[in-house]
Amino acid sequence: MLFAALALVPALAHVFELPNKIGLSRDDYLVVQQLYRGWNLLGIVVLLALASNALLTAMLARAGGKFGLALIATLAIAGTQAVFWSFTFPANRETQNWTVLPAHWEQLRIQWEYSHAASAGLNLVALVALIAALLPRRA
Q1: pLDDT tens digits for range 35-72
Q2: Do 129 and 13 touch, CB atoms closer than 8 A?
Q3: How many CB atoms lie within 10 A of CB 12?
Q4: 56 contact partners, CB below 8 Å, separation of at least 6
Q5: d(Cα 82, Cα 64) in Å, to the nearest integer?
Q6: Which of 51, 100, 102, 103 is the most buried (most CB within 10 A)?
Q7: Closest CA to 6 of 36, 41, 48
Q8: How distant is the alpha carbon of residue 112 from its chain centre?
Q9: How remote is the C-alpha of 89 from its chain's centroid?
């Protein structure tokens, strides 16, 4: 559960900053995006969250509803990876990690920002499902 919670924190940060960043000028946005240098190293947290949730799901395979909740958590975290590789990473690659802004940079900004918001939603679903899966059953 720790890794799921750790993955949620930066994802929510992206959601809260989105309204302030989405309207920045070209030059200001390029400067702000440089704050993310080195954050790719935290990808290990996502991999650990995915692996630990998959392990929990396997362990709860015969636990009825708890299995379903753990599976939801695992699929939601896997979904964050699908979003990243489908939307975030291509924007990062096309902008050379936001050091170069092509002519259609505003479309890439929307793609990048909203992909992070979608990942935050998936991380939140994962954490809630995981907490519910780990709560003791009522007598």
Answers
A1: 888 877 778 888 998 999 999 999 998 877 799 999 99
A2: no
A3: 17
A4: 70, 73, 74, 130, 133
A5: 27
A6: 51
A7: 48
A8: 12
A9: 12
